[in-house]
Amino acid sequence: MTEGERKPSRPAALAALPLIILALVFGTLPMWTDDYWIRVWTGVAMWAGLAASWNIIGGYAGYISFGHVAFFGIGAYATAILMQPGYDWNFFLTLPVGVMIAGLFALVVGWPTLRLRGAYFAIATWALAEALAQIINTLDFTGGSFGLSTPGNPSTWFFYYAMLIATVVIYLLIFLLFERSRFGYKVKAVRDNEAAAQSLGINTTAVKLQAFMLSAALPAVLGGINAYWITFINPQSVLSGEITDQMVVMVLIGGLGHLWGPALGAGVLYLASTWLGAEYGGSTSYIAMIGALLALIILFLPDGLIGLAPRARGMKLIRKLLRPAGASVGDAPPGDRP
Q1: Distances from the Cα of 218 to the Cαs of 59, 198, 211, 264, in angstroms?
Q2: How far apart are CA 76 and CA 94, in angstroms?
């Protein structure tokens, strides 16, 4: 073993430093802050995981799904139903059940819908999620429109660490499968040119279906934790289309198809909406402020906030705005030319 293999290089050590600092900060957060901020950061962790899950099918695979809330709701209802009196399942045992149901539902739904592209796929997934909400609204064992209650757990620490660990595991899976494996390259190849990927021997149908099932199973874990956390669910609280809308917006703000974009977008949007809601909660003006913020980010940072990173490939519009007046395209560095 050489010296370079035993000891990490300086750039690698510097790259790991921010992750170590973040791990220390978030790992000890409940020890130095109050319950309010623990709940706020629990929400940030949940939305970061949901946005990352949506980014699998939306960013890596290139299919814009507007029905992802269905998988979040399936996980929530699986946990709530199995924890009802008469079943009395342990909370942790309910999570794999929700994951399996969400994965099977994605298999059944994805087989026909992944043959569609663009707006047709988006509309089909949105319609399926709405249909699921209406079906749950009429079933007795789901509580119908009255919903279900789950046993209470007053510990804010428990839910903070449950959400945090689940989200960290989600990011680790995405990093290993989509940034460091052949499967990730296949998914990106299908996204960029499906016909070319198929000509190279890639089973594009299987690759798309596997990516869709993975992106569906992960939100079910967060849905189950959320159902136990908020102690009451109904179709409006866990199957509303607004949940999918927020996943999409968070990914677009942070950076579509980037590993850390969803976490960045979820943190910025959730903290901004929490602060603006507290300051201007008496009116609806804060909604317009959030809309203006979204418009500015999408207009000037088409690659999302992750485009501000030094090594990001984006910032095309920012570089264009900062280019000196009168400079032509040919004056720009090769990497900046359109």
Answers
A1: 15, 27, 11, 19
A2: 10
Model confidence over 241-282: pLDDT tens digits? 989 989 998 998 898 888 999 999 999 989 988 888 787 765
Exposed/middle/buried for residue 325 (C-beta within 10 Å: 0-12, 13-18, 19+): exposed
Facing residues of 233 across strands?
148
Report, as an integer, the average pLDDT of 163-178: 95
Rounded Cα–Cα distance for residues 114 and 191 (Å): 12
The answer to whether 66 touches 244, Cβ cutoff 8 Å, is yes
- What whole-number distance in Å separates Cα of residue 235 and Cα of residue 47? 19
272 near 293, Cβ under 8 Å?
A: yes
This prediction has a pTM of 0.86
Residue whose tokens read 């940034």? 179
Q: Which two tokens stand for residue 217?
A: 């199973």
